[in-house]
Specification:
Layout: E1 2-4, E2 10-12, H1 15-26, H2 38-59, H3 66-90, H4 96-131
Antiparallel strand pairs: 1-2
């Protein structure tokens, strides 16, 4: 795995070359620019996916409006994980952390969406029965 430099010489690449290419492509050359590396974004996506999945499983139908928070965590986790996973695939780096973050975020989003839907259906059935 390598690349051709400016003088058309073939150079071997390593992990740091891919990291630098990624950072140059997305404009993260300056450490103080606030962009952050994709490793920190992957960590945030993984944490949000864990929060989304665990809270959706714990809250369930009991705390319906708190599922809005877990739904938001799951969606933000997906938004953070997808571009990082694509970049890791593009540069042929290991994608295990990105896949785990994306999977947990999708599962958490689905669980919280279903439990939110069930909460509103139960709430609608309750109000229809007792207020009519």
């Amino acid at each position: 795995m390598g690349y051709y430099d400016n003088k058309n010489n073939y150079q071997l690449s390593n992990y740091y070359d891919y990291q630098n290419q990624y950072n140059q492509y997305y404009g993260y050359n300056n450490r103080n620019s606030g962009g952050g590396s994709f490793n920190s974004r992957l960590t945030a996506a993984l944490v949000l996916g864990i929060i989304s999945t665990s809270c959706a499983a714990i809250f369930g139908l009991f705390f319906g409006l708190l599922n809005l928070l877990t739904l938001g965590c799951g969606i933000i986790g997906i938004v953070l994980a997808v571009p990082c996973r694509k970049a890791l695939i593009r540069y042929r780096l290991p994608t295990g952390k990105a896949t785990a973050a994306l999977t947990l975020s999708i599962i958490g989003t689905c669980l919280s969406g279903l439990s939110l839907l069930g909460y509103f259906l139960l709430w609608g059935a309750y109000t229809t029965y007792y207020y009519w």
